[in-house]
Amino acid sequence: ATGGGHRTMATRIGHLLHRAPGASTPVPDDDDDDDDANPRGATNADAAPSTPPHDAGRTVQLGDLVVVYEGFNRQKAVTVTEKGCYQNRYGNFHHREWVGKPYGSKVYGRGDAGFVWLLAPTPELWTKVLPHRTQILYLPDISLVCHALELKPGSVVLESGTGSGSLTHSLIRAVAPTGHVYTFEFNRVRAEAASAEIVDHGLAKFCTVTHRDIEALGFPSELEDRCDAAFLDLPGPWKCIPSVAKCLRPDGVVCSFSPCIEQVQRCCEALEAEGFGDCQTVELLGREYDVEARELQRDLSTTQPKLSSRWKREAKEKARRKRKHVDGGDGDGDGDGDGDGAGVEPKPVVIAHPRQEAQHHTGYLTFARLSPVVTREAIDAA
Predict the structure, then answer these.
(1) What local confidence, expressed as pLDDT, does residue 89 receive?
(2) Among 85, 160, 309, 355, which residue carries the largest CB count within 10 Å?
(3) Which of 182, 228, 231, 188 minimizes the C-alpha distance to 209?
């Protein structure tokens, strides 16, 4: 980052954190010799510099991560630099002209050929603009996961695998400022990329990215009996269910995302064997609506079957003749205008209608709760 006052995504989740230029955090790895290291993998770089807080009306500064909004499904993440220039079909947009403008501003390119919006990043926007390293979860599934896992500030969450970090950012927002997300990725390259993003977004205080094969090794022993929820996005989630049971506190919730129903069946069998209950599987298919203005016929008693283009032209012509007649024209109007379609005018109204497109299967979300173990000693004590 260049310039002063680096603003990060952390400010969008309610925490005013800033990253020192050039700061980085190494990715914890089970191959490392220092197994007794801080389980959060914290370093001095995680500490946020003492920077004055910024209110909701903050402005774009050099080094900021900005979401450039061009239109529906056309957004891009851009880091603001001194000599940067964003180019698209609307023209050239020089970064230095963005500095000082409030987030949410409309900015024009050179020559006023077109404009874009400058938006502050949120987990929802990041899901739309992030670089895809794997298939990701999208907002309908993410919202259900965060709700069903009963996440709140202070919760400790396990995640495997990290992938592109789409869900990770929403988990962080849900548990911050006093909770923590421990996310694990078996692919070293993806783990390092995710760790760099978490640090760059100023979220290292709330999240630890670790390179580890959870299916083969399970979760680290130092996390046993410490976690409130767990999320699994693995090809064989049933392999690590025993490890999840050790890490969750009683009444903790686990969620597994699987694209195939056979994976769901094997996972449910493993959950039941490890003492989980209240098991349910959900397939979430979002239905999107378009909102637009359309002209609707006001008088439904008319015999006109629909407002055809020909009818519209005839109605406009009759209205023109009537105005000309009333104003003392050449008298070629049709009197009071009581012909077919007279007095029936299309009125533009705002309507919502579902999109005519098929809903695609993403995957199955399986939720289960770890049943508390009731012993004879506990019953006698009660």
Answers:
(1) 86
(2) 160
(3) 182
As assigned by CATH, the class of the 125-286+360-381 domain is alpha beta
> Residue 330 in contact with residue 336, Cβ under 8 Å?
no
pLDDT recorded at residue 183: 98
Domain ranges of the chain: 9-122, 125-286+360-381, 290-354
* CA–CA dist 177, 358 (Å, integer): 40
Model pTM score: 0.72
Q: Which residues are annotated as a binding site for S-adenosyl-L-methionine?
A: 164-167, 185, 213, 233
Paired tokens of 156: 């400790």
Separation of alpha carbons 109 and 368, rounded Å:
52
CATH 3.10.330.20 fits 9-122, yes or no: yes
d(CA 17, CA 285): 36
Q: Which residues of the chain have pLDDT under 70?
A: 1-56, 112, 297-311, 323-346, 358-361, 374-379, 382
